[in-house]
Design brief:
Belongs to the TMEM19 family. The chain has 104 residues and is an all-alpha fold. The protein has one domain.
């Protein structure tokens, strides 16, 4: 993928994740590294799919948040939402694709 497209798009996604508090600080670093790996592929499809996954995932998470927060039990045992995604969640969703891109 061309850096003239990938760099601004990655910076925009990092800014969006930071400003909307979608990811923790370490989660943002992991997501940025994942985006770089996806942008390394000569075809733009992996990067475009990563962007679509991130944007749709953050949008869908917020749908009926009030209902889901009453039905969800957090790891501390209290009710409520889960908060921003961590690096563990970022890597759980992206590490296989990133490895396959690097092997290609």
């Amino acid at each position: 993928m061309k850096p003239i497209v990938a760099v601004p798009a990655t910076l925009a996604l990092v800014y969006r994740a930071w400003s909307k508090k979608s990811l923790t600080a370490v989660g943002i670093v992991a997501a940025a590294l994942t985006a770089v790996v996806h942008a390394l592929h000569p075809c733009s499809a992996p990067f475009a799919l990563l962007v679509a996954f991130f944007l749709s995932g953050t949008y869908v998470t917020k749908i009926k948040h009030d209902v889901k927060s009453r039905l969800t039990v957090s790891s501390t045992g209290s009710t409520g939402g889960e908060g921003p995604r961590t690096h563990v969640q970022v890597l759980a969703n992206s590490v296989v694709a990133s490895i396959l891109i690097l092997l290609d």
